[in-house]
Here is the input.
Amino acid sequence: MDNPFLKRATDFVRDEEAFVAMVSPEPIRYFLAKRGQDGLLYDRLIIIRGTPGSGKTTLARLFDYPAMTALLRNTSITGYKQTLATLVDCGAIKDDNPIIVGCRLPMEVDYRDFWDFPYSEELRLGLMMALIQARAILTWLRNLTGAGHDLANIEIVPRKDAEASLDFIGGTNCQSVLAKAKAVEAAVYRTIGALVAPLESELETESTSAYRPFDVIEHFAVKGNPDASTINLLPLVILDDAQVLHPIQYRALQRWLARRELRIARWLLTRLDVLHPQEALTAVTEGSSQPPDLPGITSSRDYVEIVLQSSPDDRRGQRIAFRKMAKDMASRYLRQMPLFSGRNLTALSDLLLTQAEPIATSKRTELEVHLETTRKRLAVSEARFKSIREEADKYQSADEQIHTDVRLAMAAVLLHRYAKRTPARSLFDDSSADIEPSKPLTADISVFDAAKLHLLHKYDRPFYCGIDDVCDASSENAEQFLRLAAALVNTAATQIIKAKAPSLDAKTQQRLLKGTAEEVIKAWDFPESERVKVLVTKISAMCLKVSLEGNAPLGPGANAYGILQKDFDAVVRDFPALARVLQFAVAYNAISLVPHYPCKKQEWCLLELGGMVILKHGLTLKRGGFIEGGSRQLSQLLEASSDD
Amino acid sequence: MNERLALRVLDKVMKWDTERASQEFRWLSLMAHFKYDSYRDYVAGARFIESLADWLQQFAQNEREVAYMFVRKHIVFIGVGEMQHLIERVYEKTVRPNLVTSVAQQLAIPAWRIWTDANGRATYDILKRKTLFLALSDGARIDVFRRANTGRISNEQVVLATQINKTKWDSLLKKLRDELGDKDATFQNVFLLDDFVATGTTLLRKEDGVWEGKLQRFWDDTREVVASHFQADWKLHVHHYLSTHKASEDIGKRNAEALAEKQQDNWFQNVVFSFGMVLPAGFPINTGQNADFLKLADKYYDPAIQTNHTELGGKEVRLGFGSCALPLIIEHNTPNNSIALLWADTNGSEQAPAMRPLFRRRQRHS
Here is the structure.
């Protein structure tokens, strides 16, 4: 009963054909295709930021040359067509030929070690750049020869103004270029691998002399193709997991790659951790970190920054795109499980019932009694109450059948709203007097949503169910989606084994989703995670309080904390400790920032709780409802918890 | 039976709800694939999960949870990988240090200098060649030992059994002398290897006033060649890959007793016992932690499993031979010292229930 959802399956797939069959192209299409069509992906530095599990490495692997050639080898396979079309949209493939030759260099190994050497900063950076370039050359050539091209048929075409530097990288002949890269890599590696760092004067010439292939290479010209044509391939280097570098190393690397004279395509993939809180928060609020200390570099001209999620632009579009991607990914994973594929169950949505079960009759009776008590307490006339009940009964949902318990809870919300919209009365007033409310009462979707949330907390009626809830609770993060889906799929598999119907009722879904969310939060161990837990718990409690108010003033409820934008912009300066906590909360999906949110004629920055926090505390997944606060109050909340 | 069907049967046997079944199925699938299905006695269609379902059915419904949780929490299964590891450790952790110590004493130099001393290295190589490795039983997996030490130990130093006839001894000696170019060379060390020891009774015991066991048999078999084929100060090493805590403490004492009783000319002069891994003293199950399961062990016991051999370890084998009460399974066979409910297979009688095994034991003793 192997469950591929339990692991990031793509991380464990070595075979390229299997990898491209499993990977969903949707996030690539969403985040990169437009920029690819605009020609922005390969002519300047692209910085791709994302939380852990947002799909950075999967994205990088797809642009790796072996994956692209695997796609091109199998163009007729239906499962590959979407992915192929996406790479065409991104400008990586044209007329069934690759345009780029990609190589992915994970930064986790070796590169950070340079920073511990007793050398000058310049030398340490120089060694790192030399190693990156040597390994990129080796990987490009290995990828090309691995795809069947003879090394003798591959030639380096230099930039016109860089011909003088050509000799330093081994010329245009790839055999000598390869030999030079091997020599540089070996020399630098001997330095990294030495038990005791050699003296500067003892460093091998190969590691310290001029070696700048990135400055020299324009593209690779590959001859010897079946049609005797020459294919020009633009080299693309993808530096993955750059957050492991020392911040100074990272900035130098970014500055170096952002230079406009470079012709090769270069992508830098990183989490938000490596940034200064100001940059990190700016990156997710403005879509660009705009680092202040990179002189001469402007983000729009010299590099493009792509935030894989939590981007403030087009949130609705992102949610829809993520749902599509998640469903696609789930189908690809389900197809690997014979237990499901053997029954033609390849859509996760088919396994998740969307209709929640009503509460038990005894509880419904209790609810009815409570409703009548409330009517009397609020001194609402029977006639008005009748019209409120009729209004609640009239409401229809396009998506689900509405049970009596929900209609009763809707009536309760309307009852409270009525009381709020009429002058205050006491128990001794004449309850037969029917006063018109200041604003008409309408049973709409917000009342419907509020009623269901109230029933969750008062009667434990299932609230989260269906594939869309699973997607929305994932905070647009593939890994979180897989965690949630894994628990559901596992139980569905158990039901099949038990010879029961595989679909999960809402109650089971709710239990599994909440349980998984609690496990995920419990396992947080990132920097400042304890304070992040405190922060989100306190925000959740405030959101819950307002969400459960009888009249449901925020409709479906709140799941965010709002700070005036101008106050938020100063949070790093005024409350640096809070800014640091927020940075990691954002970097690890505990919170999403929604900047410049207009409400009540003011501009807010919303601290929207992550899906796992929402599931744990039973809040709405619908966006927009927030409690008003301020950065000072938030900071005080954290300080108070530190004092506890 | 495929896994899905086996799990379904098990689910019916246990009557789990979906949540519990979901947890258990994951664990069962993982452990079956990772470890338990590799048990040698299992055959296609009747591996761990199927055997577990069958085993649990011998208990009343309200007893099954106890039995299942015993398997879930207390069984220790030494799989192929672990046993291979224990075998691979023998040379590095036991043989080499012994040889190094001997060479250091012989040359009167510190042990750490042997590798920088040409004479030290040469003496080490000679001593290594003068060492024989013999299997005490099938469980010694001497084939694995030989492959693990290819290039380090010659095939001529590894012998599949301990009962060797004179011709074979002569052949071994001739090859030693040919290889060393020393017509007077004789053996200095003998390593007897075996997989597991729980009480040491099979190895050495006193039965009706007479010493018996594999060690006694080895003494009897080697008597006629000791003077001619071994050096005067030769050393016998008895190495078990795995041992109970009790055996690791008792064997040496029993050997000392044998030596004291038999006197020098009738027993090995230098015997060293070593163990790849010693199970902790608290490893056997006990009434403190496993009272409920021990009740099942009492209730579901058929004395028909008792034999002449098992009586050497005590009258009953309810808790296994020698009442060791081990929750131990070894991939190639379950030790008879493990609790009988895990391995015994009987037809039952009017007085006793039939016992169904979870890990059927292949009897080595008749």
